[in-house]
Amino acid sequence: MPLLFYGPGGGGGGNGYKYQSKDVSGLSYGRNADGSLTLSWSDPEDGGPAAEWKGAVVVCKEGAPPQSVDDGEIICESAVKNQYRDAGLILNVGGPGYYYGVFPYTKDYVVNVDAANVVYIPNAGYNVALENASWADIAYISSQGIADQVWSVGDEKELVLSGDYNGSVMMQIAGFNHDNLASEGKAGITFLSKQLLGAGGMNIIQGGQYWWRDTTMRIDIMPQIKRAFPADLQKFIKTAIKTSSGYKDYNSSSNGVRATEDDVFIPSLSEVFDSAAIDKKYPFKTSNYYSPEYAKINGAKYPIFETDADVKKSVLSGGGARWWTRSGTYTAYGESFFCIGADAGISVETYKTIQGICFGFCI
C-alpha cells in the first residue's frame, strides 16, 4: 500500500490540500498473564472531509523512534477503528528496548508520524534497579513522571567518562521534580556526583562580571564534562534554569541574583543548606566579608542533603578537600564563591583558587 504524505496541490478537500489525521490517544503497553507484551491505543476521530481516518500502521524500531513507515519494521496494519483499544495488539516483534510508532493515515494515505504516536518500552520494565537501568530507561521513566515511585533519593549509578575527563564517577539521585527546566515544567530526576571530579578554579572571563554566568567553570569546564559523557546519556540531558548570586563590589547595583540555562552545573549554597543552616554556619558580616543573603535564594535544598551527615557522605571529598558552589559573594580579598568542606562547613574562596568539583545534570 503506498503510504504517502501529500502537500499543496495534492488534491482532495476541495482546496488542493490533503491533511493528516489527528494523533492516536492512550498509546501504552502492558503485559498479559503469560508475560506477553501488548500495545494499546485509541484511533483518532475524523478530522473532517479532508482528513478522514482510514487505518493505522504499527512500525517497530530498536534504538530510536521511527520517523516514517519505512523507518523500521511494519508489524501490523489495521483498518478497523479501535481494534486494539481494549485487548491490545500482542507484540511478537521487538519488545523491551524498542520503540513502536502507531501511525494513523487517512483515506488519501496521508500518514501522521508525529512523536505523540510513538511509545518506548524500557529494557527491563519499571522494577529495574537504577544501577542496571540504561540511560534510555531512566529517561523514559523520568518522562512518565513516575521516577520517584521506582527509585529513591540516594540511589546510585556509575557513570563512565571518556575524553577530557576519564574514568568513572558514581552518580546519585539528588532529588525528584526539583529543578525547573528551560523548556517547561520540572526535571523528573536530578543527579549529582558522589565523588569530586578533579579540581579547578572559577576564573572570570575577560570583561565579565563576578557571577557563575561569567566563569570559565561554567563556560569551559561544564561543557567538557558533558562531552565526556557517553553518547547514550548526552541526548537525554535536560537544560535546567539555575539561579546564582554575584557581587561586583560592596555597593554595586549589579549585586543580586542572575539566572542561567545549564546542561551541567555545580550546586548552589542554598541547594546544599537551608537558610537556617547557612545562618548558623556563616553568621557574620564584617569588613572582610559580605553578607550571604543573596546566596540563600539560589534554589531550594536537594533532599539528598537533609543533614550535615548526609552532606559529608553524599559528596566524598576526602582529604579535607573543599568543593565549589556557584553562589558568589564579595570579600576584602576580591570576588569570591562559597565552598563546602569535607566537614560540611562553609567557607569563602576567591575565584582564582583551586577547589573540587561536584557536578550535576537533569533528566
Give a structural overview:
The structure is a single chain. With 363 residues, the protein is mostly beta strands. The chain folds into two domains: 25-120, Immunoglobulin-like (Sandwich); 199-362, no CATH class. Helices cover 12% and strands 30% of the residues. The protein contains six helices and 19 strands. It has helices spanning 135-143, 147-150, 216-227, 231-234, 275-281, 308-314; strands at residues 25-31, 37-42, 53-62, 73-78, 89-90, 98-106, 118-120, 156-161, 167-176, 189-193, 199-200, 240-246, 256-262, 264-265, 323-331, 334-340, 346-350, 355-356, 360-362. The chain has a five-stranded antiparallel β-sheet with strand order 8-9-10-19-14. Strands 4-3-6-7 form a four-stranded antiparallel β-sheet, with no helix packed on it. A three-stranded antiparallel β-sheet has the order 1-2-5, with no helix packed on it. Strand 8 and strand 9 (167-176) form a beta hairpin. The longest helix has 12 residues, at 216-227. Residues 1-15 have low confidence and may be disordered.
